[in-house]
Each structure stands twice: as C-alpha cells, then as structure tokens.
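Journal club side-thread
Mid-discussion, someone asked how the predicted structure for our own chain would compare to the paper's figures. Pasting it here so we can look after the session.
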Amino acid sequence: MVFIYELAQTPWITFISMALALIGLILAVIFYCKGRKTKLIRYYLDGSSLFEDFVEKISGLSIQFSGKQIKTLTVTKIAFWNNGTETINHNDFPTNDPFSINIENGYEILDATMKSNNISNNVKINLLDNGKKINVGFEYLDPKDGFIIQIFHTGTKYSSTFKINGSIKGFGKIIDGKVSKNRFSKFASISSLVILGITIFISFLTNSNFVIIMPISLMIIWVLSFVMFRADKKGRKKML
C-alpha cells in the first residue's frame, strides 16, 4: 500500500493519468459529434485578380467579354461540401431561401463553371438576373460529397464580393468553412482552461508538484490544437 501511495505521488504517473483523462475527454467529444445527425454544407473561397483597371493604364487597349468592354477581371473558386453526417437532398432547401450565390452590387458575373467529385450528384448551376446571381441545384449530396464552382467576374476582390444564400430545413444556413487563427486560439484557450482544472484536481488528490505538471500539460494541448488547425486547413485547400 505504501508503494502504491508513493507511486501515485510520482509526477510522471500523475502526468500519465492526466493525459489519459484528457484523451478520454477528447474522444468523448469526438464520438458525441460523430453520433449527432447533421445536415451541413460548408464552403471555402479562393482565387485571384487577373487584372484591375488594366485597360486604363495602356492607351488603345480594349478587353471585351461577349461584346462588352471590361476593366477588371477576377476569378473566384468556391468549394462546397457536405460536412454533416446525413445525405442532403434537393428538397431540403425551402422555396423562400434556395441555394444561390449573389454578387455584390456594381459587379457582374461573366461566366461560371462547375466540377463535382461525384457526377451522380447531378449538380447544376444557372446564371440569372443578368449576371447577378447563380442558382445551385443538385439531386443529393452524401457526406463528404462536394463540388467547386469557378466564377469569372468584374469584382475587385475574390472573397468578399459574394454572398452565399441557402438554408437547410431544420439545420440552418450554409456555413463558411475557412480556417482562421482565431478558431485555433479559441480552441487552445478553452482547452487550456479545461486542462488547468484537471491538473489542479489531480495535483490536489495526489499532492503532486503542480509547477512541474502544468507546463507539460499545456504543451500537449497546444500541440494537439496546432495539428488540428493544420490538418483542417490542408483539407480545405485540397479541394481547390
């Protein structure tokens, strides 16, 4: 009994116990999230400006599209994918909030093409309202199914020029899936508070050295957060 008590007071034993508790907590959250039935479409934007006010800088130069002179040309690629656990069908969108892409006032969509990772989804796009709107339709999207819409337009920015519309019945709006350092920082901060509480609790029970255990615990949290952040970002970029 004395040996077991002394062993429990060893910092490394305490650290291993805390690490196992943390892993159990993370797995519980993961299994809970995977067990939830969700219908969720996320999107991610990328692109670049091909030229801006180029014709005004070179005398005698004229660039036209379908007989209309244009001064700015930007390409935007928008990746959409089913990030939920359930199949999304075309009738999951209400008639008063369908799936569409609208360009900001003052700009025009010149052309749009689509590429899907599953042709059986039967994704269709239609350019409407004189280049102001793209309607998006599909037969279904299984989890992880997705498609990319490439848009040529006269906007000066590839990202903030568009508004994504559409609600899925019972599950809400289409969500921006971009990865930001703010999300990483928020996750790391919350995780740090959780591990701090676990560390104090275990240190109190075992009379272990809190100062030794805490830096190691926080390092694990930050490493896990960074790995998750990089993996998430790589997955979004891979679609484009």
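Post-session note: The two ends are 60 Å apart (CA to CA).
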